[in-house]
Amino acid sequence: MIYFFIYVYLGLVVVVFRLGYPQKLVTMSRSNLALPESEARWKSLVTAYKLQNTTIHDRQFTNSASTMGHMQAILCRPIAEVRGLSKLFEVGRPEFVDDDSINRARILINERDSFQRYLQYLQEQPKRSPVTEFGPWTMIRKYHHEIEPEDRPKTMTTRSQSQHPAQPTTRPHTPEPADLSESSSLPDISFLTMDSDTGSYYAGGGGGKEQERADGEQVVNLVLVQFFDLLTLPYQGGMFKYSYDRKRFQVRTLDENGDQVKVFEARTDGVCMDSSGEEIWLIFEAKAERQFEDNNDVGYAIQETGELAAVVSSHPPKDLKPGKKNPYVLISQNMDQIWVTLAKVDKAYVDFITGKMRNKRDPKSFLDMTTIGPFFTKNKNHIKDLSTFVLAYTLKRMGILGLPWPESEEIELPPCSLFRHTASESTL
């Protein structure tokens, strides 16, 4: 029997040696960084961090969304879950889409000849760069093809170019966080590094590939926003618009004199908004790497929480009635993956995040976030469902504003229009 335990011990020593003991410890600590999936889990994290009498408006944490830590994200009060692709329309009802908007979107998409040729090309030749012309979507496909990992040129490589993971059907579920009682150690995020050029978290650091990451991220950014701008272009009619600028949004609070002061700031990679610029419909975030490479999903989830909180604070919904929830959609493209986060807030959360609720009491309201994905850029069914959903969501937002739904109309743009936009920064 004693020899058995010796063999087991030696086996564990070998495993630890091969895996790397410090790395294993870091991997275990990441499980504590999951965003809470329930109010009970959120409260346990608040207790573990001793934040019961602290709110985001105390300005104890003032990092930007791209550099915020787990505690600061928790104070934004997120409740988050991940669902599979098949749940997109189910989760989206009724705040984001309804049967009328979905049916109308399907009709409009079916009548878009160039888009149908684009989908047909994805079905027949998903791994090839365009060799035929299908209107403005030709350039979309060209750049999608370049950022897809197995075909990616050396000028846009990522740290994982030599080993490309198989395309998952659903986003891997973050492990259940370990119990965080007051006596347990708090999450360690020392393994995360913030890229100063891109404002992106990644695990590990350094190396000559940071500029390549920034270059690749710019291409992903432009093709992401252009795709949805082009999808809805025939129906915009001056009623809503896309911005390619890196918009800056702020969570603000009131100081002792009643003046608004900044708590923290978030920069997005583009937005879709109504013609007045007051209502934000879509928020875009671009990354050069897939999620779950080098455990970057930890920083991504934290950053997106800060971005959504800042957008709600800067552009709160108007005339939101008690019991109703206002939708926000964040679309994140990570290389060839597209994730959709459907966020909902009620009046209590709006009052909280805008600083109108100054006391320490629990507003009993949260930033409700459901992330769905990944949708892959070369999968016909993924692109069709995602496009239908976003167009249906756009139509529903138009209906809420009393705007007329569009008739079918085909607009062909020259392919070179893809890069007529350059990223800049502005504040909303």
Tell me about this structure.
This protein has 428 residues and is α/β, with parallel strands linked by helices. The protein has 12 helices and 12 strands. It has a 7-stranded mixed sheet, with helices on both faces. Helix 6 crosses helix 12, helix 7 packs antiparallel against helix 12 and helix 8 (137-147) packs antiparallel against helix 9 (210-232). The N and C termini lie far apart (70 Å). The model is unreliable at 12-31, 151-206 and 410-423 (pLDDT under 50).
Tell the overall outline: globular
SS content category: alpha/beta
Poorly predicted runs: 12-31, 151-206, 410-423
Write down the Rg: 23 Å
- The first-to-last residue Cα distance is 70 Å
Discrete helix count: 12
Strand runs, count: 12
Fraction in beta strands? 15-25%
Helix coverage percent = 25-40%
Give the integer mean of the pLDDT values.
Answer: 76
Strand order of the largest sheet: 1-11-10-9-8-7-4
In N-to-C order, the SSE pattern is HHHHEHHHHEEHEEEEEHEEHEHE
Largest sheet: 7 strands, mixed
Summarize the structure.
The protein has 428 residues and is α/β, with parallel strands linked by helices. The chain contains 12 helices and 12 strands.
Question: Topology, pairings included?
Answer:
Elements: H1 2-19, H2 21-30, H3 39-49, H4 70-75, E1 78-83, H5 88-92, H6 99-110, H7 113-124, H8 137-147, E2 192-195, E3 200-203, H9 210-232, E4 240-243, E5 246-254, E6 260-267, E7 271-274, E8 280-287, H10 297-314, E9 325-334, E10 337-346, H11 347-353, E11 367-376, H12 380-400, E12 425-427
Parallel strand pairs: 1-11, 5-12, 8-9
Antiparallel strand pairs: 2-3, 4-7, 5-6, 7-8, 9-10, 10-11
Helix pairs in contact: 6-12, 7-12, 8-9
